[in-house]
Amino acid sequence: MKKFAVVAALLLSSSLSMAAYDDTRVIKFAATSPKGTPPAIGMELFARKVQERSDGKIKVRTCPNGVLGGDVQVLSSLQGGVVEMMTWNAGLMLNHVTDFGTLDFPFLHTDTAKVDAMLDGEVGKMLTDQLPPLAIFALVIGSIYSGFATASESAALGVLSVLGLWRRAFTWQRLGQAFEATLRTTGMIIFITLSAFFLNFVLASIGLTTTLVNFVSELNLSPTPMLLAIILFYIVLGCFMDTLAMLITTAPLIVPIVVALGFNPLWFGVVLIVLREMGQITPPFGMNLFVVQSIRGRGNFMDVVYGALPFCLALLVLIALLIAFPQLAPWLPKTF
To answer: How many helices (H) and strands (E) does the chain have?
Structure first.
């Protein structure tokens, strides 16, 4: 509980510092709790204490009873700067870390000392230890999608953030363990890639790839059915071949056929990349399936396969959207 109180104090101090720029600072404090409930009573007490200790320079306008919307709406308002503070239930954090359901435990106790002992003990440590990985994930992925950093640069940001958050727990022994885990994962990926190229050599030697391409090209279908046949061809081929080798061996033969059918080569390139990504997660030889299973280190391989199926379905939906709305392919690069 003390750790959460420190966070609240930091937020309050930031509000106090901003008050120096204005004679009176009004802070909107929103909640979904009805009046008379413990959270609403706490909000009113907090508002009175802030006004007293700031000599009236800071006023807290409480908005209980969900007058500004539900938790999700108020959280969006908080992110947009419409409100400065809010209280929420554990449900919002449950979307990210299910263990935060333990925050509801204090309502089962009448003694605040027991609550403090619980949240300052192993339960509280368990919760706070799970927040830094989420922050690192948001930093790495956010820096990539915002255009702030490349994939390699965001990886460096992730390493620096890890060293900053866990500097007290950093030891040479743990660094060695991290190197060992990295070598294991990298070696496994290289081994799978080499095995995939060996399989590709066998498939090319027996002429399977050329046979399939000739079969598709000799169907003599109209453009749309031919495109669907090509997509089906790549889905089947992606189940058995390494995706990079699949593109190298088939693209020089397939792309001229697609262009001759009247399709935009740039658009087909986007579709081809989506199909390549699907090949990474389609059984039985999807490389990412083996990577995930190796990192898990436990359980059945079929669990990973079943878990990847929704993502395969999502990629198929994306391909359907690209076929129905071809302008989606160049829209993103043209916009940004």
So the answer is: 16, 3
Are 99 and 128 a contacting pair, CB within 8 Å?
no
DSSP secondary structure letters along 129-179: HTHHHHHHHHHHHHHHHTTSS-HHHHHHHHHHHHHHHSTTT--HHHHHHHH
Are 285 and 297 in contact, with CB atoms under 8 Å apart?
no
Model confidence, pTM: 0.46
Which of 260, 277, 290, 285 shows the shortest CA–CA distance to 318?
277
Along the 336 residues of the chain, how does pLDDT read in single tens digits?
444 443 344 344 444 444 444 467 888 888 888 888 877 888 888 889 988 888 888 888 888 888 888 777 787 777 667 788 887 666 666 666 666 666 666 666 667 777 777 778 887 777 777 777 777 877 888 788 777 778 788 888 888 877 766 656 667 787 788 788 888 878 877 876 777 677 767 767 787 767 766 776 677 778 888 888 889 988 888 887 777 777 777 777 788 788 878 888 889 999 999 998 898 888 877 878 877 877 776 778 888 888 888 999 999 999 999 999 988 888 877 776
Rama region for 97: left / alpha / beta (φ>0; ψ in -120 to 50; rest): beta
How far apart are alpha carbons 229 and 246 in whole angstroms? 16
Q: Residue 58 has which token pair?
A: 């800071």
The candidate with the shortest Cα–Cα distance to 1, out of 127, 117, 129, 130, is 117
3-state secondary structure of 299: coil
Tokens 């030889």 label which residue? 285
State the CB neighbour count (10 A cutoff) for residue 21. 7
| C-alpha span between 273 and 257 (Å, rounded) | 17
Whether the CB-CB separation of 237 and 200 falls below 8 Å is answered with: no
What's the CA gap between 270 and 245, in Å, rounded?
17
